[in-house]
Q: What sequence folds into this?
């Protein structure tokens, strides 16, 4: 027997989303004070990400035993990221140029409030410096990477550490076993934390509606609507096609990840589900070595939703400020965005900062124009985070297929809801045929202890 809707995590998050919208509308001043609920939940998840990524990657490398394979997976992942990110950037430019969401606004750049950009200059310089970005991947100390929670730094340490342990052979076996046990402890801890997901979603949504309200969407509604439409086209069309070529269905994958999608929608942060997503992909039948390399790396190099945002917003600002764009300008936007979109995950206030960095490199577009999108950035952030997360999950499946690191039979059974996935266990529990036939109308992939 399955739990009733309101007792499942999925049901609780749905109820929290609805209550958050109601509270934000009815008591806007009170709802703004609920922001710490969302922030606290995300902080709880983030404190586990660094050690969990370390354990998963190290154990994955050690259990694989083939260091060349680890390097091959990394290279293939980066190639995939670059190709798909380019498609995302190009789609943003294409739809913005064709549908012209900013035409007719006739905004004078001199009339915009420059104070809104105060404090951005230093972070913009950091975001545009390739050398600084590369050096930033190397932590000051072993512990410093974990203290800061920088995923790329932790990933670098984990790869080096895993290779060293694997090279020790038999002498490294006790270390591998200990790290594997430690990772199970962290996953159990995640199971405790995600029970707070409905509370975090309630606080985040109530704050958003209470502070910004739907009224802020009136003037820029076309931009926000087009962004959501573009992300949908990208997920269903491009990612759906890629996943179909790999032998899987995008809608079944989205259904499998529905709890994570709702939490990301409510918190506008893909960080809030990173550990859960890694666990779900492993239980789906993808080797932990592939999951451990692709997902953390993708969070910095495969930001599909963010890429769409960059080019769409840049063209929108040009249109709104009556700045003519030639084909050379459009290609320049694409080229610059390919560089600035990388590593945005580690930059505070990344969306606005990276957009400012992109505009500063394109003289034709007034950089002050980014003030236009500030009021709706949170609403766009929801779609950004959702698309980023989906893109990285699809990337993991594709690389798994590419490297034959996925159990296809198990994956199809999980996606077809023929098994119940429990994230607190090491395996998926098979259902009997009678249970399948009698419970099919109800959601069959349940995650009792997480989002």
A:
């Amino acid at each position: 027997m399955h739990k009733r809707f309101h007792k499942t995590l999925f049901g609780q998050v749905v109820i929290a989303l609805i209550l958050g919208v109601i509270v934000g509308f009815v008591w806007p001043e009170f709802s703004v004070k609920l922001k710490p609920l969302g922030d606290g939940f995300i902080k709880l998840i983030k404190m586990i990400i660094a050690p969990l990524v370390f354990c998963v990657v190290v154990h994955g490398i050690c259990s694989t035993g083939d260091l060349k394979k680890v390097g091959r997976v990394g290279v293939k992942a980066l190639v995939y990221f670059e190709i798909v990110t380019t498609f995302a950037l190009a789609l943003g430019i294409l739809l913005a140029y064709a549908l012209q969401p900013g035409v007719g606004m006739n905004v004078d750049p001199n009339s915009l409030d420059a104070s809104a950009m105060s404090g951005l200059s230093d972070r913009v310089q950091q975001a545009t410096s390739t050398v600084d970005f590369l050096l930033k991947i190397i932590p000051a100390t072993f512990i410093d990477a974990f203290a800061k929670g920088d995923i790329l730094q932790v990933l670098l340490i984990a790869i080096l550490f895993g290779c060293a342990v694997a090279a020790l052979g038999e002498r490294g076996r006790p270390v591998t076993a200990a790290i594997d046990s430690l990772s199970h402890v962290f996953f159990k801890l995640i199971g405790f934390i995600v029970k707070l997901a409905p509370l975090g979603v309630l606080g985040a949504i109530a704050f958003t509606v209470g502070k910004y309200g739907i009224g802020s969407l009136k003037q820029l509604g076309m931009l926000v609507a087009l962004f959501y439409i573009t992300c949908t086209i990208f997920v269903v069309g491009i990612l759906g096609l890629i996943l179909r070529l790999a032998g899987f269905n995008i809608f079944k994958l989205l259904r499998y990840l529905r709890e994570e999608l709702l939490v990301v929608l409510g918190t506008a942060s893909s960080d809030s589900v990173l550990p859960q997503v890694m666990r779900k992909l492993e239980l789906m039948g993808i080797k932990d070595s592939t999951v451990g390399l692709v997902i953390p790396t993708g969070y910095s190099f495969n930001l599909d939703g963010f890429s769409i945002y960059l080019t769409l917003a840049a063209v929108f600002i040009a249109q709104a400020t009556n700045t003519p764009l030639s084909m050379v300008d459009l290609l320049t936007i694409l080229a610059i965005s390919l560089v600035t979109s990388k590593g945005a995950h580690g930059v505070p206030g990344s969306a606005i900062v990276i957009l400012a960095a992109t505009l500063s490199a394109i003289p034709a577009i007034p950089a002050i124009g980014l003030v236009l999108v500030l009021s709706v950035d949170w609403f766009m952030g929801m779609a950004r985070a959702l698309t980023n997360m989906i893109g990285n999950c699809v990337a993991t499946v594709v690389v798994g297929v590419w490297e034959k690191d996925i159990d296809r039979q198990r994956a199809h059974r999980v996606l077809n809801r023929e098994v119940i996935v429990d994230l607190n266990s090491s395996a998926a529990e098979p259902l009997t045929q009678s249970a399948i036939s009698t419970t099919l109308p109800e959601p069959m992939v349940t995650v009792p202890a997480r989002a």
Q: What stands out?
A: The domain at 5-439 is CATH 1.10.3860.10 (Proton glutamate symport protein). The first strand starts at residue 419 and ends at 420.
